Amino acid sequence: PSTTGKSTLLRQLVNNGVLLEVVSFTTRSPRDGEIEGQAYTFLTKDQFLQFRDEGQLVEYVQFSGHYYGIAKQRIADTLAKGHAGIAVEPRGAAQIKDIYGRAVKQIYIEPPHLEEVLRRFKKRSPEDYREQYESRKLEDQAIGGYKKNCDYTLLPHNSQNWISNVTEWIKNNQ
């Protein structure tokens, strides 16, 4: 779910050469420090909807008024080079798993307490953090059973060992 550290974990695994990142599309504005084409390709809503309508997206979701999605071709291009890593919300991960089946390994990051979620949203987007927080609470209710379908779970209180634990798990489950 949002604010669990998906992007941070993926960035570290990519930097350590464990995975190659599949860059997602989004219609939201870049945050401070985000560079076009690294974490996201930033699109207008019309551009995004055109990709969706043409069937070019393997998954997409709308969260806090913005669209997020991944192009089929980006996954194929990345898989041709090695193991692909994708940071997506649970609904998007389920869509990808439905298409790629057992080739996909899902890691679930247990969310922190809601007070910490609120703090992270406020730091991330001071202007609309309350709206994002409310969306996140609804999201948590909607994805209740998702965790049991994942292959590996990370706990928030053990984040200092995430990279070594996940790296070892990936190597043992290729």
Protein architecture, described:
The structure is a single chain. This protein has 174 residues and is of the alpha/beta class. Helices cover 43% and strands 17% of the residues. It has helices at 6-15, 45-53, 72-79, 90-100, 114-124, 129-142, 162-172, and strands at residues 20-21, 24-26, 40-42, 57-63, 66-71, 84-85, 107-109, 152-154. It has a four-stranded mixed sheet with strand order 3-2-5-4. Strand 4 and strand 5 (66-71) form a beta hairpin. Helix 5 crosses helix 6.
Strand content: 15-25%
- Backbone shape: globular
Percent helix range: 40-55%
Pick out the low-confidence regions: none
H/E series: HEEEHEEHEHEHHEH
Structure annotation, total helices? 7
Q: What is the SS-derived class?
A: alpha/beta
**For the largest beta sheet, what order do the strands appear in spatially?**
3-2-5-4
Number of strands: 8
Sheet of most strands: 4 strands, mixed
Through-space gap between termini: 24 Å
- C-alpha Rg, in Å? 16 Å
Output mean pLDDT.
83
Task: Describe the structure in brief.
Helix content is 43%, strand content 17%. The protein is built from 7 helices and 8 strands.
Write the layout of secondary structure elements.
Elements: H1 6-15, E1 20-21, E2 24-26, E3 40-42, H2 45-53, E4 57-63, E5 66-71, H3 72-79, E6 84-85, H4 90-100, E7 107-109, H5 114-124, H6 129-142, E8 152-154, H7 162-172
Parallel strand pairs: 1-6, 2-3, 7-8
Antiparallel strand pairs: 2-5, 4-5
Supply the key terms:
alpha/beta, four-stranded mixed sheet, 7 helices, globular
